[in-house]
Amino acid sequence: MDSIIYVSPDNKFKVIDLNKEYNGNNKETPYAIVTDLLEVCLHRAYGSVVKQYSPFVLLTDEMFEAMHDSYKNDHREHMRESLFHDTLSLDAAVFLVDEYSNPVRISESLYTMDCLFKRMSKLANDAGPRIYKKYVIGFTSREIATQEGTTFDEVRKCIYRALPELHKIFVDLGVVA
Prior knowledge:
Layout: E1 4-7, E2 13-17, H1 18-21, E3 31-35, H2 39-51, E4 56-59, H3 61-83, H4 90-97, H5 110-120, H6 127-137, H7 141-148, H8 152-172
Parallel strand pairs: 3-4
Antiparallel strand pairs: 1-2, 2-3
Helix pairs in contact: 6-8, 7-8
């Protein structure tokens, strides 16, 4: 890990640059010291070194590994989510479900939009409201899952399974061929 900036000679503690670990989001407490020592013992034995990295958060190895793994998993999910067009507009959703990838746009007429939303509300398994939240409002699948008290994966799969049915709606409305 390139976020480790110091390891004590006796391997009793290591200093982590939290700004490197979490992409610059920790201005107030830029460092974490990972050790199994109590803070008092750490200051007593390594006071001059520790002082250079104040203020810091004191973590055990287990805590740091859990945080690091969680961050890595969140980053992986974000990357996977972006593969599923997490921040696309409704126009992009039309493009996504068009089998031939023909760039098409939804007519701005209120009638078309009204028909579209009525038909989307009839999609199975809450897919309509989820597609609306994702592609019209711009929520991520994770945000939708949090709002609904379900899992990210369930929301993602529900939307993905509804895409063929959504494509049929677009065909019926004459939005795609």
